[in-house]
Amino acid sequence: MKEVIPRPLDGERVDRVVAMVTGLSRAEVAQLVDQGGVLIGGRPVRARSTRVSAGEVLEVDVPVVVVATTPAPDSAVDFAVVYVDDDLIVVDKPAGLVVHPGAGNQQGTLVHGLLARWPELAAIAEPGGEDRPGIVHRLDKGTSGLLVVARTSAARAALVAQLAERSMRRRYAALVWGPVEEDEGLIDAPIQRAEADPTRMAVRAGGERRGPVIRSNSATTGPST
């Protein structure tokens, strides 16, 4: 596939852009980059952290083996719906539920449940991302929280652009065991996928420096959050 980088994605990491436009997981994209299957301006990308520029031509050699089919609806998948309108759905994903099919998780995902309630989602799936209809961002299996799902192609494009521009904010709450010295702090370290396990993140040279502000609730007793 071949795409021209739009302005909202200017300056983004190439692996993140490829994941957005193809629907592939970051692990699958990393493998493509390592194999020389991602090109910018006709030249193979050597580093996953390479930044793209608006107007550049991105080429991705998507293997046939990763092309998915639309999952079968499954009404047994349980999740709460927080908000819904003609353009989008906001669901509260419970911990333990996988968002979309992947290696080792071909059944019983959130996507299967979404298709049972809104079968029209299958019509807006991107080529190569038939197993992720309407999905614009993900939460790990063990993470619970709100997840936005697009109901139309226009809504999907708008949500992807908002995520790329970071005009849509994501906030996470974590449980920390033990004493927390300060009520507020700044994490300023380069974060990148772990070399030994690409499903995990680690502090590594060459990573992104996001610098999230971490706040703790000092009024609580026991574990601090």
Q: How would you characterize this protein structure?
A:
With 225 residues, the chain is α+β, with helices and mostly antiparallel strands. The chain is 17% helix and 18% strand. It is built from 4 helices and 11 strands, in the order βααβββββαβαββββ. It has helices spanning 14-22, 26-34, 110-117, 153-165, and strands spanning 2-4, 38-40, 43-44, 57-60, 80-84, 88-93, 145-150, 184-186, 191-193, 201-203, 213-215. The strands form 4 sheets. Strands 1-4-2-3 form a 4-stranded antiparallel β-sheet. Strand 2 (38-40) and strand 3 form a beta hairpin. It is globular. The termini are far apart. The model is unreliable at 218-225 (pLDDT under 50).
Keywords:
alpha+beta; four-stranded antiparallel beta sheet; disordered C terminus
